[in-house]
């Protein structure tokens, strides 16, 4: 009797220890199952039906018709190209401005904390509020942007109306909104660059640009790579900034894949077609992720040699 | 490793509870049972005008007046911005939810009715109520069933700020050429926007209704009832005129309705074509009601578009008896008169309402709207009611090309007609 109780307790403790990982993982798995896998599976099913928004369960199975219609439509490829251009512009712009700002703010300059706080504001401001401000900035009649171009002798521009400027304007606003994230992450990475290496390079006669290129950059490249991946995926998925600024216009020049999904599902009520666009968009995100991991693995192998 | 059965049972129960919690979403609670006479419960009623400046709050107060008539009821008004209204309702209705009663544009009604999302009203309205309904309620009939009643048929009119026109020394235009000349003169002399109407695809649904003014004003139409007439000569003439105004240098290029109405109320826009809901919302210290004048549109024909707003019961409502009682109260003479005055006494409602001479004297802009009330035409395409939104999207996408890419009106409308075939 005296030894039975401790043995039983030990067994219970061992059993609890054995089941604990499953419970922890199980909670996350249930969450993902209900909020990711089920909706995604339902979306996949919708993409093979002619379901409409007002009658989502009444759709008939149409096989690959939705995909066939998309892949033979010029509008889809145009939307894909717009997505790629927007993504490239936003990623390159935010990495460039973010890195430059981070390097500048890692130096010991007067008012550094104030500058850091100021440059973080765009990331902190809610997107809707920021976009409303930019709509006024880009207003043809009374916007600040056109006052500036008029003062420069260029004349008023239709920033959000001219098909040649629509994508550029949307990309500029997006870069403004997201570059502080890059700046903060790169700032953190810069703390890990050994000061003595930079000092040694300077002693060897390297100027600031060369110090950055030969010492700093190699140390922050892994960080930049992961930030680029995140920026790419976020840009492919970005909706609110584009939709609020232009709604996909002018003349569909900012109609990215995500905007197409919204228009098809919620404006044209074609849930099946929208789901098909969404699935192809998902494939695009997955391709980017796979390419990143393949390139990362290849670099790791090179480093190992 | 062997896991004790008791532990497995505890784990399974935990997972089951978690699953149950996850699966249980919010659900509409059923209506409390009625007790003695009037039904009880809470009704949600949605309309975009509940958010309208100046008169939106008062409109909500009128609707909540039902609580005095039926103290067992609670009314919750749901305001949704106009641009997102249809989208939000579609999402809610498709999920089996949504407000108990809601307004809808005449262009949206066929879509909702075709999906059987509106409660038939033929056995809901009392004989007295039915007798009081005017002819505009025919717009709420779908497949020979009354599925909605008129909330408001709002005519359009040509509206201008008389102080600005006087300052610029121009007479109120009565033809299209005079309109362009007046707008350009105002822009040149005062530096403010001469003329404003919607022109952006981002406001697709209301732009379609607005643009119908030009089509009606030039004697055009989108169909003959059997086939589409998208590229008819009258429609091409209407689009050509629109383009000329857009390119005049005096047009509110790029402004949405919210922006150009704000500018009008600030005295920064001189003239516009807008529905009757606009003037009450634009009255301000800078532009008092007495400074706004309206008249028929300066186009060859006397016809205008209309904002047709209908009101129906959600087929998913859990408060059917209460919703039906509310609808009969809504159609009583006093409620209709109160709503008519709230809307500026210029719209046609579900039943007959009156307007005093005193009101017209204080609000001169109401006169032109009342004159136009007899000449309004719906922007729902006859014979193509349930696909009007899709046709509208195709046509307006081409109109945008005319405005922004200088595609000729003839080619743009021909392209729209071809793609719709």
Describe the fold and architecture.
The complex is a heterodimer of chains A (305) and B (421). Chain A is mainly alpha-helical. Chain A folds into 2 domains: 4-46; 65-304, MetI-like fold, CATH 1.10.3720. In chain A, 76% of the residues lie in helices and 0% in strands. Chain A is built from 12 helices and no strands. The longest helix of chain A has 43 residues, at 4-46. The model of chain A has no long low-confidence stretch (mean pLDDT 91). Chain B has 421 residues and is α/β, with parallel strands linked by helices. Chain B has 2 domains: 41-153 and 308-354, 3-Layer(aba) Sandwich (D-Maltodextrin-Binding Protein, domain 2); 154-306 and 360-420, Periplasmic binding protein-like II (D-Maltodextrin-Binding Protein, domain 2). Helices cover 43% and strands 14% of the residues of chain B. Chain B has helices spanning 5-23, 56-64, 66-69, 85-94, 109-114, 127-132, 162-168, 176-190, 204-217, 233-246, 257-265, 278-282, 320-330, 333-342, 357-362, 365-372, 388-405, 409-420; strands spanning 41-46, 73-78, 101-105, 141-142, 145-146, 149-161, 193-196, 269-275, 292-295, 304-313, 376-377. In chain B, the strands form 2 sheets. In chain B, strands 1, 2, 3, 6, 7, 8, 9, 10 and 11 form a 9-stranded mixed sheet that branches. In chain B, strands 4-5 form a two-stranded antiparallel ribbon. In chain B, a hairpin with a 2-residue loop joins strand 4 (141-142) and strand 5. In chain B, helix 2 (56-64) packs antiparallel against helix 14, helix 9 crosses helix 17 (388-405) and helix 17 (388-405) runs antiparallel to helix 18 (409-420). Chain B is globular, with a radius of gyration of 25 Å. In chain B, 48% of the residues are buried. Mean pLDDT of chain B is 89; it is low at 5-35. Classes of the chains: A mainly alpha (305), B alpha/beta (421).
């Amino acid at each position: 009797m005296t030894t039975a109780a401790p043995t039983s307790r030990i067994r219970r403790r061992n059993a609890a220890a054995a089941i604990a990982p499953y419970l922890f993982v199980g909670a996350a798995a249930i969450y993902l199952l209900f909020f990711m896998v089920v909706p995604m599976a339902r979306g996949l099913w919708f993409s093979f039906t002619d379901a409409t928004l007002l009658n989502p369960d009444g759709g008939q199975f149409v096989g690959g018709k939705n995909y066939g219609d998309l892949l033979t439509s010029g509008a889809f490829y145009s939307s894909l190209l717009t997505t790629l251009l927007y993504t490239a512009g936003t990623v390159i712009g935010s990495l460039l401005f973010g890195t430059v700002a981070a390097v500048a703010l890692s130096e010991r300059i007067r008012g550094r904390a104030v500058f850091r706080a100021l440059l973080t504001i765009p990331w902190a401001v809610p997107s809707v509020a920021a976009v409303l401000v930019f709509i006024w900035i880009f207003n043809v009649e009374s916007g600040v942007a056109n006052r500036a171009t008029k003062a420069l002798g260029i004349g008023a521009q239709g920033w959000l109306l001219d098909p040649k400027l629509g994508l550029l304007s949307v990309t500029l606003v997006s870069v403004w909104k997201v570059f502080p994230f890059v700046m903060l992450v790169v700032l953190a990475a810069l703390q890990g660059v050994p000061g003595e290496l930079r000092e040694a390079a300077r002693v060897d006669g390297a100027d600031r640009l060369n110090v950055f290129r030969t010492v700093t950059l190699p140390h922050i490249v892994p960080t930049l790579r992961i930030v680029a991946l995140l920026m790419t995926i976020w840009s492919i998925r970005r909706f609110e900034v584009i939709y609020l600024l232009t709604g996909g216009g002018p003349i569909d020049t900012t109609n990215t894949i995500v905007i197409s999904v919204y228009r098809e599902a919620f404006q044209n009520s074609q849930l099946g077609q929208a789901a098909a666009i969404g699935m192809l968009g998902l494939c695009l995100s997955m391709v980017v992720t796979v390419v990143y991991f393949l390139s990362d693995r290849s670099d790791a192998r090179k480093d190992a040699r | 490793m062997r896991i004790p059965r008791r532990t497995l049972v505890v784990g399974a129960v935990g997972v089951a509870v978690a699953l149950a919690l996850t699966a249980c979403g919010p659900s509409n609670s059923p209506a409390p049972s009625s007790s003695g006479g009037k039904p009880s419960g809470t009704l949600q009623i949605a309309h975009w005008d509940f958010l309208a400046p100046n008169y939106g709050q008062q409109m909500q107060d009128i609707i909540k007046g039902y609580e005095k008539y039926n103290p067992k009821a609670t009314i919750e008004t749901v305001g949704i911005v106009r641009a997102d209204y249809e989208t939000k309702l579609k999402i809610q209705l498709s999920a089996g939810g949504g407000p108990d009663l809601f307004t809808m544009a005449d262009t949206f009604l066929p879509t909702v009715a075709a999906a059987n999302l509106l409660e038939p009203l033929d056995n809901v309205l009392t004989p007295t109520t039915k007798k009081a309904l005017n002819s505009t309620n025919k717009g709420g009939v779908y497949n020979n069933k009354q599925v909605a009643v008129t909330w408001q048929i709002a005519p359009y009119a040509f509206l201008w700020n008389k102080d600005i026109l006087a300052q610029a020394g121009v007479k109120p235009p009565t033809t299209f050429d005079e309109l362009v000349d007046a707008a350009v003169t105002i822009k040149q002399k005062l530096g403010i926007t001469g003329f404003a109407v919607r022109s952006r695809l981002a406001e697709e649904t209301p732009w379609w209704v607005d643009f119908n003014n030009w089509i009606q004003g030039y004697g055009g139409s989108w169909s003959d009832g059997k086939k589409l007439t998208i590229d008819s000569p009258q429609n091409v003439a209407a689009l050509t005129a629109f383009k000329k105004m857009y390119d005049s240098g005096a047009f509110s290029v790029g402004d949405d309705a919210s922006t150009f109405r704000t500018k009008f109320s600030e005295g920064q826009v001189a003239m516009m074509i807008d529905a009757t809901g606009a003037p009450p919302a634009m009255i301000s210290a800078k532009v008092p009601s007495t400074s706004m004048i309206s008249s028929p549109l300066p186009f060859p024909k006397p016809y205008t578009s209309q904002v047709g707003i209908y009101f129906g019961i959600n087929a998913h409502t859990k408060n059917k008896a209460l919703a039906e009682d509310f609808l009969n109260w809504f159609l009583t003479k006093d409620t209709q008169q109160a709503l008519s005055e709230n809307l500026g006494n210029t719209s046609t409602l579900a039943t007959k309402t009156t307007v005093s001479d005193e009101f017209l004297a204080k609000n001169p802009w109401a006169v032109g709207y009342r004159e136009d009330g007899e000449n309004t035409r719906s922007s729902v395409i006859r014979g193509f009611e349930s696909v009007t939104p899709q046709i509208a999207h195709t046509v307006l996408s081409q109109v945008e090309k005319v405005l922004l890419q200088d595609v000729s009106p003839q080619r743009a409308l021909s392209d729209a007609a071809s793609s719709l075939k």
